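Continued from yesterday's entry.
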Amino acid sequence: MKSTNEFISAIRLVSNPDGTSTFEIGKIPTLKRMNTTAFWISTATEEWEKDAHTAPRRQYVVTLKGNILFKVSNGSTFHIEPGIILLVEDVEGEGHSWEMVNGEEWQRLYIPIADHADDFFVQD
């Protein structure tokens, strides 16, 4: 995926009606004001996060450093690295799991999306 001046590459995790999870590849427009509630930075990784889990809320996850392999219910995988925004919306069902591919640190910024706000994701 390649970013353009008008969009940044993104992958969205979603819950299916049957409780499984999947992902969609797309993009998010740049210079768009988004309804968010707060943000925080994390470098900590707890073991439970690597097991299958749902997202605690709808949120953008911006990777600052790291290469992460995500896995959804059907076994499909995708990589997140700096320059690709992860949009996490699989708040119900089986959820997702992940593991670090290179290195031992994942630096990321969490930006929760305000309730009922548009996520501005455009699927490819």
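--- second protein ---
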Amino acid sequence: MNYTFEQLPEAISTLHEKVDSIKDLLVENQLASQSPHSDLLTITQAAEFLKLSVPTLYTKVSRGEIPVNKRGKRLYFSTGELSAWIKAGKKKTVEETQSDLKHKCTEENPPPE
């Protein structure tokens, strides 16, 4: 977009406001991520995070299937631990399985020198 000389002060002012707004959002986001409680979830929040019902989550906790912190009668879940738990259940693709098998075979039977 082309601005005339007379429009420049208003355009710069608008641009300055937008940059300040973006800066404020970035600072707010950084502060939220540094908060020590920002990644702790209650049972209800954890159920929403995992897309499970609260009773199902209680069952997984009682069976020791899911990482949890207990303080008194309250349960707390770390988003980082829950994400790692989800990723640990990843099924390998056929290509990954074949690659692992090839790698294992070459370690056990190295090619002749």
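The chain is about 60% helix and 10% strand. Strands lie at 40-41, 69-71, 74-78. Will compare against the first tomorrow.
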